[in-house]
Structure to design on (249 residues):
């Protein structure tokens, strides 16, 4: 009963926050304090959203971005999990390499875009690579941290049965890391979206990032906000679906 009441209060707070945020947006839009359409009225944004949904071209751009994000996220997740398990399982290796991983993780991934484009060109491969690079670091750091939390007795049991490195990873490490893996997926997906969209904004001729910067270049600001809102909603939905994978206690 207390949990249900808490859920209702949380829902009410979210609803009030959304209403207040929209009201503040509309007040700023109507105030005339900012240059025309920098913060457009909600009515214009709603119309732009409807036009975006009804346009067939939108789905072509959406398909490109979705493929780039999915491929980049899959590569970054797989590499991050493998490297994170290795860092956690081999403590000396982990301690030696973690300062470099943390330093690279703190760097804005967009700075790697010129290098990625030199290596892979300016096509879809560079967008996938930047998405993978963006997803990799939160996954590897979170996985390595989760490895350090695994109870030593589980590792001792696995080794006493003579399990190979692959069997240890599959039967001991990954099941114990279930919660860390899901959290890593949520973090990695969000940053993969950011990496891909930034790459599309910088250099692309398709994708939602390209569409957003195209509207910006022609000062179609409500349309730009509609595209950004579309990206936000889709990313939030995907993140919520992954969150359902969290193991129940």
């Amino acid at each position: 009963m207390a949990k249900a009441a808490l859920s209702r209060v949380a829902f009410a707070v979210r609803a009030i926050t959304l209403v207040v945020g929209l009201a503040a947006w509309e007040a700023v839009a109507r105030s005339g304090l900012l240059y025309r359409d920098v913060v457009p009225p909600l009515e214009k944004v709603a119309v732009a959203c409807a036009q975006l949904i009804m346009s067939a071209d939108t789905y072509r751009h959406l398909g490109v971005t979705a493929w780039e994000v999915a491929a980049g996220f899959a590569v970054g997740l797989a590499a991050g999990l493998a490297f994170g398990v290795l860092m956690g399982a081999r403590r000396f290796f982990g301690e030696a390499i973690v300062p470099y991983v943390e330093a690279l993780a703190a760097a804005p991934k967009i700075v790697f875009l010129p290098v990625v484009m030199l290596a892979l060109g300016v096509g879809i491969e560079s967008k996938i690579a930047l998405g993978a690079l963006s997803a990799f670091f939160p996954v590897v750091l979170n996985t390595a941290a989760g490895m350090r939390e695994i109870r030593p007795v589980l590792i001792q049991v696995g080794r006493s049965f003579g399990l190979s490195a692959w069997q240890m990873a599959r039967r001991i490490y990954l099941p114990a890391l279930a919660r860390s893996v899901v959290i890593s997926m949520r973090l990695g997906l969000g940053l993969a979206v950011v990496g891909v969209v930034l790459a599309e904004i910088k250099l692309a001729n398709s994708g939602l990032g390209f569409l957003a910067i195209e509207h910006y270049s022609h000062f179609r600001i409500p349309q730009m906000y509609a595209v950004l809102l579309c990206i936000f909603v889709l990313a939030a939905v995907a993140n919520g679906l992954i969150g359902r994978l969290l193991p129940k206690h």
